[in-house]
Sequence to fold (940 residues):
Amino acid sequence: MADQYDHRSIEKKWQEKWKESKAFAATDDSAKPKTYVLDMFPYPSGEGLHVGHPKGYIATDIYSRHMRMRGHNVLHPMGWDAFGLPAENYAIKNKIHPRVAVEQNIANFKQQLADIGFDYDWSREINTTDPAYYKWTQWIFLQMFKKGLAYQSSEPINWCPSCMTGLANEDLDGDVCERCGTKVEKKRLPQWVLKITAYADRMLEDLGGLQWPEYIKEAQRNWIGRSEGALLKFQITNNKSQIEVFTTRPDTLFGATYIVLAPEHPLVEEFGNAEVKKYVAKAQSKTEIERGAAKEKTGVELKGVKAINPATKEEIPVFVADYVLWGYGTGAIMAVPAHDERDYEFANKFKLPIRQVIEPTYEQTTEPGKIKKGEPFDHREAIIAIVKHWAEDKYIALKWKKVAWGTFITGGIEKGQTPEIAARAELEEEVGYTDAEFIKDFGIVHGKFYHVPKKTNRNAHAHVVYFELRSDARKPVAAEEESIHEMLWLTAEELKKFLTPDTHQHGLRWLLGTQSIYTGNGTLANSGQFDRLESEEAKKKITEFVGGKMTTTYKLKDWVFSRQRYWGEPIPIIHCPTDGAVAVPEKDLPVLLPEVTSYEPSGTGESPLANIQEWVNTTCPTCGGPAKRETNTMPQWAGSSWYYLRFMDPHNDTALVDPKKEKYWAPVDVYVGGDHAVRHLIYARFWHKFLYDIGAVSTTEPFARLEFLGFILAEDGRKMSKRYGNVINPQTVVAQVGADTFRLYEMFMGPFENTTAWNPASINGVSRFVERVWKLQDAVQESAVPALDTIVAQTVKKVGDDIEAFKFNTAVSQMMILLNAVEKEKTIGKAQWMQFLQILNPFAPHLAHELAERAGFVTTDWEQWPTYDATKLTAAVLSLGVQVNGKLRGTVELAPTASQEEAVAAAQANAVVAKWLSGADITKVVYVPGKILSLSVKSA
RNA sequence: GCCGGGAUGGCGGAAUUGGUAGACGCACGGGACUCAAAAUCCCGCGAUGGCAACAUCAUGAGAGUUCGAUUCUCUCUCCCGGCACCA
Fold:
């Protein structure tokens, strides 16, 4: 009998062995294929790790151990992202120097990680606050400075009065500081800014080739916020200057009936009277969020100024309103109330003219009538007649007999006819009614579809006209007409479901008054020579016509990169009275963060470094005269924007990474993490692309595949937090149930990407699994057990596939299924046992190693990924479901190789199936070997 | 409002080139062992009816395609995430 499983001593034993043998060190010059597996490195906070943090680390540990077993040279490193506000705030609060606090916290984190038995290559450990590391963070900044991508600006920035520092847009949660929840203010401060917008297009384009979760890619696209449009100039009547607007809809220019400027627009100050100035002052006291939350549009006219619509040459008024944002586009818009919701709302309030210039246009995208691509269109003037019953609230509808269509009365307009006359003719011809009163012409709607009988693409320009019958007076209808469609009387509700073409649905909404203003692309009207052009084409032509230019804008803003705080990388710039901002020579890097006793923020908008005279005062590298150092520091995101490169070559003193090593290891094959990811990923991709452009790295993207993890909540369903007192320390759990049980449990909780609550009761399940596997070593026999062949092969395949796909929960489940099968057989062959331990090893390495050693397996043998016999994946006899008329009526034991005749015979021999077959003829047999036998019967 | 993802037993969740829904685990119920308890082992466990054999219903709701739908199509409801007066 095996002794009791003592996880404490066994885990300690193997962790020490791995440490001594440097089992997980990656080599840089291996002939093996490489795999780079990376965790988002942690911020070593004072709170330490809770059980949620290691979830991703367990996954990468399993993945990398498994890849190593498959013969890969695996890089799986760990490091510390230790600069930034939280570490500094923690230090201030606990009256301890940030450097000391960081050291203590790292030591704590490392011990917590060690207990779980991870395979990190600690010889490559990095720390962003280490001068040997941040030397290269500063170096990257200097390269950007030299290329003009790091520049100084004094635009107003977000200022957190509590953290006493400027923040980037990305650091905000709405209009509050994401760190402390304080509402941010706008403050004008000299800032260093990185030109991330120069990379916006490339960051967008390259997303396509990445193996990332769709929602992360989508978040990146949202954040970049690219939009294509045109810049158009409007001349001002009493002045030589012009107003430039950005619009995505230059095709609506003929409908632009006024101009709106953002309150911050320079012309506002130039022309504004007292009333305008009052409005501007009020608008500026509000944050952008408050402006957005306003229920009603506000604004004020800029009296005495008119603009000229360059298309219509009309003079139009100019307004100031805070629904136009200074930070986007040109801070000025042309307002087209007929085709924009916001402009429409504003125009209604201020009684401004609304001019329709786009007519709705629909394309049929489904059969019948789906447009044939590439074929030309014929154009036809047409009518859609809505005809109301003489007494009831019902309308004439036509149900088409040859195609599955439902429509109103519809037809063409002959030469010389008005829409009304054409509609009356169709009414009489198609359904015979003669006593109709014309009520209204709603307008034109365009429908593009494939005309099936005429075999051509057609664009029908249909007037939607409305009639009410006065009586049921009716002429006979030709038989030919009756064969085409059937007439129905339907209510508006019924029509909503009945009408097939979008154009007819649009007409119905006009009738009911539920059609709001049309904001889609369409066909131009009231636009001079551009009438009947479609939006896409008109955009270019109208822009050209008025001398504007097509352009692209982004929501993404350049990255505000200065922080007025102590605990960050000093920005390596020297300000010289004669030479301006000068780069610190590369040989002088790193610019060390000075040791100080007081590092609290000054709050004046100046960094605490500004007070250290002996550090600030220096000489200009260019002219040698007296000069001052830049005193702002970099944001927390700086160090984490390139750390994955440093792991490839962590001790290099002459380059950020040796090109040979970079070429071997790049890119990161699997990157695993959660939280904060949109920003980190945008910044890292930006820096990476820059480094690619200057030849420092060889790939255009840093992370080929990204796996995002779901968090672990506390038992109470809330986030784990000191505040709620619901934090569970992994060390406590490991001490109780062992590292392997802990690892298996976190992987078995559910899909990796799901957020799930911690459930101690569920740990029992995996704990039992570990105990039962341990006991199995007594059941091992020399010869293989044939009854286990199939399940062993299936398990080896599935566990391997599942690890690759990050489906760890089903991998664990499959191993449990194998265990159940072995216990049922009461024994397992030695070779089969080895395979079991091989696939278990990445999940429960301590247990697997101990059992392998006790079984006498040789390391070089068992520490590789097992192969399986593909011919054994399918059992010789399977249970096959038998359906009769689509319902399962029984199962039969059958070889998957059996013929249809054999299958039907077996089914007929089954008593329950036979009952359902008796007295009936089999009319159809569908047999999918190994899957299903489906019989259709009809009673005789 | 727009975009992305989702909804399956008491619970976490399985099952997708459409093929026996509920794997695996937890919890729960019954039994064995024990003086007793824990641990362990065995049996049961979607709902309804039935002693049972079995039947009917069931994967958010409703339609459709199909021999067959958790899986595909359409409409709708709700939940999570991102963006949001972005012109």
